[in-house]
Write a structure and sequence with these properties.
- It is built from eight helices and twelve strands.
- With 359 residues, the protein is α+β, with helices and mostly antiparallel strands.
- Helix 4 packs antiparallel against helix 7.
- About 2% of the residues have low confidence.
């Protein structure tokens, strides 16, 4: 039986329309987006093609020159006139060669024919940062370290993101799921779109996290002094400096970036798991109401390093325990976790992953 996703949505049909042009440019879409495609009725054959768009405005594809899986992101230049420029700036040498750069790489920029306003940014195949979920306290500390490292890199280039939220943090899945071709496919441990596939944990194959979504980012000349930018109020309405009359007054976007990252850590780690309580004082300072009282990202990194050094090394192998987990769930998960950690220790795998040393 074909799933209800067998029919293309209104958002998908334009992709079918440009499929022949994309193929000429070296990017092959799934069979789903080729004219006349119909489900075969064979689950293993259809599973991948019953998956719709990975995210709004984003399509997965295969680069025909090397068979590499990529994502294509539509950008309306009239709405986000600087996204391509800033993304390309961060993706070009020498910045692209810096391991501290966690800005999503841009492989190519394509101008859609007969649509002067819309371009496609070609990016690596990435996955939501928390899919699959973090397993250990060490993996959580690595995630936080990379968030801070990536934000420092942006700020060192005088770039403020201005709209950091969970959906903007992505995971490079190439080492963990080397056979995956769709960023929303079920985790390979459950089968990759109906078939079997290799999968690894973050501890086994350390993975890099990326900042994406630079549609509201800006690059500043700090020789003119601290920037003062009119607020962009996106999905996150909680920014203290944007409340009341602050919504109509310019402010420095760099402390706001620090707020966004602190809130993200609070929402996705502190409020969700036990074991990361040591980060809470730092996070509290990052999200305090007065932006001038928040630490800079350099100060955040220095404090984080002190926090990490103060923890006993065994802590980082401990499983992240969900605050909503039942006792039975905890017991069941702990058995497998202990086996994995013994295996990792025997193999000499560090408790805190290091993406710069992955195989």
């Amino acid at each position: 039986m074909a799933s209800s996703n067998a029919r293309l949505t209104d958002e998908e049909r334009p992709w079918q329309g440009i499929q022949p042009w994309l193929l000429k440019r070296g990017y092959m879409l799934r069979a789903r987006y080729r004219s006349g495609w119909k489900p075969s009725g064979v689950p293993q054959d259809d599973a991948e093609n019953l998956l719709g768009l990975p995210y709004p405005g984003i399509m997965d594809a295969i680069r025909t020159s090397d068979g590499k899986a990529v994502m294509l992101k539509k950008v309306a230049k009239s709405q986000h006139p600087l996204e391509a420029e800033i993304s390309q700036f961060l993706s070009s040498p020498p910045l692209s060669e810096d391991p501290h750069n966690h800005s999503v790489p841009i492989h190519d920029i394509l101008q859609i024919p007969d649509n002067e306003d819309t371009i496609l940014l070609v990016m690596p195949l990435l996955r939501p940062f928390n899919d699959p979920e973090l397993q250990t306290i060490g993996e959580a500390f690595d995630f936080v370290h990379q968030l801070f490292e990536g934000l420092k890199f942006l700020h060192d280039q005088h770039v403020a993101h201005r709209d950091i939220k969970g959906v903007d943090i992505m995971l490079d899945l190439s080492s963990m799921f080397p056979e995956t071709r769709h960023p929303k496919a079920p985790p390979p441990k459950h089968g990759n779109c109906g078939g079997s596939a290799k999968s690894f944990s973050r501890t086994e194959q350390p993975s890099k996290y990326y900042y994406s979504g630079f549609g509201h980012a800006r690059k500043y000349n700090l020789d003119d002094g601290p920037p003062a930018e009119m607020p962009y109020v996106g999905d996150d309405k909680s920014v203290p400096e944007f409340q009341g009359s602050g919504a109509k007054e310019p402010s420095n976007p760099f402390p706001t970036d620090v707020y966004y990252v602190g809130k993200l850590i609070k929402e996705y780690l502190s409020q969700k798991y036990y074991g990361v309580e040591s980060l809470e004082p730092l996070v509290a300072d990052m999200i305090q109401a007065d932006p001038q009282s928040r630490p800079t990202i350099d100060e955040v990194i220095a404090r984080f390093a002190e926090i990490q050094r103060a923890q006993p090394s065994i802590l980082f192998r401990i499983r992240l325990v969900g605050k909503q987990d039942t006792i039975l769930t905890r017991i069941n998960l702990e058995m497998g976790h202990l086996k994995r950690q013994v295996n990792y220790s025997v193999r000499g795998l560090p408790a805190i992953p290091d993406y710069t040393r992955r195989s």
